[in-house]
Amino acid sequence: MTITKICCIGAGYVGGPTCSVIAMQCPHIKVTVVDISKHRIAQWNSDKLPIYEPGLDNIVKQRRNVNLFFSNDVENAIKEADLVFISVNTPTKTFGVGKGRAADLTHVENCARIIAQVSTSNKIIVEKSTVPVRAAESILKILSANHKPNVKFQVLSNPEFLSEGVAVENLLNADRVLIGHEETADGFWAFKELSKVYLNWIPEEKILRTNTWSSELTKLAANAFLAQRISSINSMATICEETGADISEVARGIGLDSRIGSKFLQASVGFGGSCFTKDLLNLVYICEHLNIMQVAMYWQQVLDMNDYQKSRFSNKIIESLFNTVTGKKITMFGFAFKKDTGDTRESPAIHVAKTLLDEGAKLNIYDPKVEHEQIQRDLTHPYVTENPEAVMKSIEIHNDPYYATINTHAIVICTEWDEFIELDYKQIYRGMIKPAFIFDGRKILNHDNLTKIGFQVHTIGRR
Ligand code: NAD
Ligand code: UGA
User: Fold this and answer.
1) Considering only CA atoms, which residue is closest to atom 30 of ligand 2?
2) Residues 196, 215: one domain?
């Protein structure tokens, strides 16, 4: 079998960009991305894509309705495909056993059931969603118990390592493509077939072959290690603030050790995003389940440190503003969990906003890419407030960063958007209530210049 038709179930942050890049690099393959959400598919078929990713618009424009299709017709797309990616969300369970920790595999299981039900030819099923170790076994069991006569499936694990904001670049120049397969001749054959797709643009030496379980665990391990670096540097930032050391200097000093490396050592208000917290919780749950409690506690600490960091930053704002923010107007610059994305899932900005709102502050919020409705949804969510009407009265969402700062007491930088570096802070200072404060939660501004202008500057990892 040569793969000529691919179906991807899940048109989200992973399915959309990944399949757009496959369609661009493999013009001979028809790629259909399907989703149960009518709204999401309509957006993928419109001029305004549902997600913002630099470079993605261009690719979609080039390939859409050529060899890249977005559709709600899940059944037909599966039926005609040689290979099916499962790229659906795997959120943390909100109910039952493992609530608040284990991954909820309902969507993955639904995919397996529908694949078994509609498939009339052999297929390679690729688990792209991030899942607990041995999830592929459950998928295979469901497929085996429900398939039509003479239809065979091979299940591969091919986790995704892209980062939002640089997804296209990551997909085009992946550090590695990891494929885990069943240790049988058929498993090896399926690995070869998926490799052929990637070999259209990924060098062979970057395609890594492992067994299925190693592949699944590698994904969780990679996110755990990355998150651990951020919590480690943030823990050092705390020491810096108490001692007069500067975290930027410490990060540079340790990052030049080639065994440590310089990436992912940026102290911050804390990590956010849809995956680090969820995947770490999942890892901790797996360890607890395996009764290796010391390991569970070790990784739990990475999460605890992140919560500590977010709280520390929010509390610092309140303390610096003379221990009360009640009735004070505060500008939040940035609401996305990192720059170059409109995604707010688990954004540290939500935590900061919640703390300030709980204390009675009024917030002016500006983010260049996050939709206003999304900010409203996030801040009126039951997790944030029991009184959504009061929150709506306490927030103003702005389209202009300068306007957002007028008559406010403080600016809080929550996302490291490049445009915040270029703003005219002299002009901003003139319009603010004095003393005017800046809390740089991303360490992106020139603090000496801001101090010269007259700002009271507070940041992370420096006194
Ligand atoms: P997402 O929520 O953006 O997209 C998932 C999509 O799947 C949604 O549009 C949903 O409607 C759809 N879906 C759910 N069940 C379905 C079904 N039965 N049939 C058809 N469609 C269905 O999620 P995402 O951010 O793309 O993440 C997907 C997976 O990839 C997760 O497991 C995540 O951990 C992993 N991952 C995400 C990233 C990232 O940067 N977001 C990176 C690497 C891995
Ligand atoms: C992360 C991983 O980097 C990807 O490899 C992985 O595929 C993905 O999770 C996933 O599984 O979902 P992502 O969450 O998109 O990607 O973005 P990151 O660049 O990792 O940033 C995550 C958070 O950490 C952001 O809030 C960011 O601001 C913060 N961060 C990052 C820091 O605070 N300091 C750093 O040095 C780096």
Assistant:
1) 271
2) no
Q: Specify the pLDDT at position 463.
A: 87
Residue 266 CB less than 6 A away from ligand 2: yes
**What residues are annotated to the active site?**
275
Quickly list DSSP for 229-246: HHHHHHHHHHHHHHHS--
Considering the domain architecture, whether residues 321 and 442 belong to the same structural domain is answered as: yes
Write down the pTM of the prediction.
Answer: 0.97
Q: Does residue 119 line the site of ligand 2, with CB under 6 A? A: no
With a cut of 0.95, is the ipTM above it?
Answer: yes
Q: Residue type at 423? A: L
84: which strand partners?
7, 125
Q: Tens digits of per-residue pLDDT, 331-348?
A: 999 999 999 999 999 999
List residues bridging with 458 in a β-sheet: 439
Residue 372's domain comprises 211-463
Q: What is the pLDDT of residue 213?
A: 96
Average pLDDT over residues 200-223: 98
In this structure, is the dihedral angle defined by the CA atoms of residues 222, 225, 230 and 233, taken in order, positive or negative? negative
Question: Which residue's structure tokens are 């410490």?
Answer: 250
Would you say 435 and 414 are in contact if contact means Cβ atoms under 8 Å apart? no
What's the CA angle centered on 163, arms 177 and 60, to 5 degrees?
Answer: 85
Residue with CA nearest ligand 1 atom 3: 12
Helix, strand, or coil (residue 311)? helix
275 is in an annotated binding site: yes
What's the start-to-end Cα distance of the chain, in Å? 63
